[in-house]
Amino acid sequence: MNTLNHTHDIKAISWLASANDPGCNFPIQNLPFAIFTEANRADHWRAGVAIGDQVLDLDALFDKRLLTGFAAEAIQNIRNKDQKVASLNSFMSMGQEYWSALRHAIFDLLLHSVGLDIKNVVQSCLIPQSNTLYRMPVNVANYTDFYTSIHHARNVGRLARPDNPLTANFQWMPIAYHGRASSVVISGTPFHRPMGQSMALGGIAPSYGPCLRMDFELELGLFIGNGNALGNPIHLSEAENHMFGVCLLNDWSARDIQFWEMDPLGPFLGKNFCTTISPWIVTMEALAPYRVPFTRPDNEPQPLAYLEDEGNRKHGSIDIQLEVSIESARNRELGQAASTITKTSFKHQYWTFAQMVTQHTVGGCNLQTGDLLGSGTISGPKQEEAGAIIELTKGGKEPITLSNGEKRSFLQDGDAVILSGWCHREGFARIGFGENRGEVLPIVG
Length: 445
Ligand code: MN
Fold this sequence. Notes:
By secondary structure, this protein is an alpha+beta fold. The protein folds into two domains: 6-135, Fumarylacetoacetase, N-terminal domain (SH3 type barrels, Roll), CATH 2.30.30.230; 143-441, Fumarylacetoacetase-like, C-terminal domain (Fumarylacetoacetate hydrolase, domain 2, Alpha-Beta Complex), CATH 3.90.850.10. The protein has helices at 58-64, 69-78, 89-92, 96-110, 116-123, 150-160, 255-261, 310-315, 329-334, 353-361, 389-392, and strands at residues 33-38, 46-51, 54-57, 126-128, 132-135, 143-147, 175-178, 184-186, 191-192, 195-198, 207-210, 214-215, 218-224, 243-250, 253-254, 275-277, 282-283, 291-292, 317-318, 321-327, 339-345, 372-374, 400-401, 407-408, 416-423, 431-441. The strands form seven sheets. Strands 6, 7, 8, 13, 14, 16, 17 and 22 form an eight-stranded mixed sheet that branches. The chain has a five-stranded antiparallel sheet with strand order 4-3-2-1-5. Helix 2 crosses helix 4 (96-110). The longest helix is centred in the first third of the chain and has 15 residues, at 96-110. The termini are far apart. The relative contact order is 0.17. The model has no long low-confidence stretch (mean pLDDT 96). The protein binds manganese (II) ion. The site of manganese (II) ion (MN) has 7 residues, from loops.
């Protein structure tokens, strides 16, 4: 578990003016990691850290030999030795003390009080974000998607089982399905509406055709840094040590295909055509100020002993503000702004990331560097805080209206869904996740 330290100090400012703008996603207290290149140089992928409106090029910084100790070892592992495989995996496998050492070293270099000679050297390693492209920051080893919002589970469960929306297991453990790592893509990558088999309500035989109930799921993605050996579960008290950081994740869902196929083995083709992640990974250390207690109402089942401990109770949850907007094809044509359709916080989730990690490994399953755990759809307690369109429209029956008057029961071709997220707490900086964007294209052919 990360404790608060001087890198979280709200009074810390950078010599880079844009990092000190109020409302900036990437102040000196954030320092998230990505894999980037310049837009006009699309063959030079390497690791970078966001600061203000710039990217600190870690390959260039490595060449300056400014770092010492653990930070020097960390940047040696993060630099791009082979442009074809640029990823953060090697650095992520090193563990908390290296992640932290590199964060602290970069913080010191960007701090307002650093000497002019150092500042000039570091400044030469900055690339404007307006001229950058991003790709997958991590070679995703495996992808597992959880189901941990009780509000989402109730809203969706009610559509199928009005009298008994929650399944018997939901309040006892974080439940999940094993997803597909190969179709996890970086923000900005469009995908084609999938074809598939579905059963109309009250139908007697399924039909094959384009998905008619295309949906998004607002989620966070947790990246595993260092894994565990097969047969060696990660105890709850150790779970935080294995977590590298968090991104925004959209678990695109073809609801008609999913609901026909998922009984009894769970989601398959309704989910595996595309999952979109945001480019920047915000580290667990950056998130330390925004941790909040894990709570469970007294009249609900309390976690079994292996999913319960003091640290998780005290600060197992994270208050991350989240927002979803839709930009339709017509919005783009006419230059209109996207419509915000929901706002919520991750703090409402029924289970914590630590409990998900422990549950995943309790039987002996080995997590690996680069494993991605989806939080499950994040829906808050109010109807307007729902993290999927199927909830916002009550199964498609009550369409939502976009700001230009267009109505949506489910997503249409040309719709782009944009997730954004940020943390703020009194006495601490506001840090942002940036944006996760994906667009639904028509069926192939
Ligand atoms: Mn999901």
